[in-house]
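Reply to dn_fold:

You asked what the input looked like. This is it:
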Amino acid sequence: MTENKTKRLSVYLPDKVKSDLELMAAETGLSMTQVIVMATHSLLANYKSQGTAIFASLLDSKQKDPTLLSERLQVLNQETARIQSYYGSRAAEFENIYHRDEPNYQNELVRIANAMKDALAGRTVLEIACGTGYWTQIIADAVQHVTGTDIRPEVLQIAEAKQIPQLKAQFLIGDAYDLDTIPGVFNGALASFWFSHIPKNKIDDFLTGLHKRLGSGANIFIADNVFVQGRGGELVHKESCEDTFKLRELSDGSKHEIVKNYYSKEELYDIFKPIAKQLKVVVGGSFWYVSYSI
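and this is what came back:
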């Protein structure tokens, strides 16, 4: 069998560009994929004939600055540090979000829990960003074993204090972008309410690393929030930034700005369909979840 080495590219288009492409597709009867592929071929042909001249208006001195990449990496590292600080400070109140007194909200949580247990039943599971072990405890009886990982020791201390049999679960310090350091062999993975905190330009890195760590045949379950106006702090958009952010204030009065990206059902299909088998995407009023195998 010939291995397919085509690399999936995730491109997040500005709303204006996306609407223009959708109009073009509607007028021509072509699909969005066909329009984008044709546009890419046209770009490559122009580049081949004219070289970097076609980018003259974009390649100003600032963008040619060799320090630009370093500055971008510094910004990304700062954002990672902010998220880690936020969850370290939030450890003691982390699970309050699951106790919202709304019947529909609670019903969706039950449906997610049942779907999660079905997808991972009997498997040896690597849990990414397990936090205080809320979801670890829910799936423990259904799985063969779960290794919960998180970058913050504060949340892991709370997780370890839960009444989960040691034969069923363990908790380890672990970086979601460096899963090779986590010991064990896994045929399942869980990432609950972590995906929204991944900068969009790191989604491919995360999923590639996760799939490589698991191998073919593994089942994966990912769940996160649907955007609801007025819930969970103010949503912040920044100019020339594809990510969105939330302003959060904790009970100690500290304020934190964190990456918080929200996705439609169509966007989730765009992200996961090229890399998934038996893909299932469910979007509710408060949460979404994706389950698939690799």
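The first strand starts at residue 124 and ends at 128.
Hope that clears it up.
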